[in-house]
Write a structure and sequence with these properties.
mainly alpha; single chain; 2 strands; rod-shaped
């Protein structure tokens, strides 16, 4: 049977590993173009519809249908210009990381208290 101190040491090790993984997730985070496509379309469509032979089209629709490669390149450029730290998924990972770090601090304090008790 393990002691409380051993359980805390194991939990500390597990949290440190999880924190390293979250930090890696933040470091490698990239904004997903698919998640930003609606905002990109809205940006393209702000100038209003375009007229082709008397028929009105949204600029985003026209670009995507007439030149899908140009549409994809512009979407990629749009996403590249965004600040990843503003992305909700990035913020969620940051919040999870902070929560883990707080929990680690609490557990380490509890572990140190147990060590102090052993020294007495």
């Amino acid at each position: 049977m393990s002691t409380k101190k051993e359980d805390l040491a194991e939990r500390i090790a597990d949290l440190k590993t999880a924190i390293e993984e979250k930090e890696r997730d933040l470091e490698l985070f990239e904004i997903d173009c698919d998640d930003q496509e609606d905002e990109f379309k809205s940006t393209l469509n702000r100038s209003g519809p375009i007229n082709i032979c008397g028929i009105k089209f949204d600029p985003a629709y026209a670009l995507k249908e007439l030149d899908p490669t140009a549409y994809d390149c512009n979407l990629s450029d749009y996403v590249a210009g965004l600040d990843r730290t503003d992305d909700p998924k990035y913020i969620e990972i940051q919040n999870e990381l902070r929560s883990m770090e707080d929990e680690l601090g609490d557990i380490e304090s509890e572990y140190e208290d147990l060590e102090d008790e052993d020294d007495v």
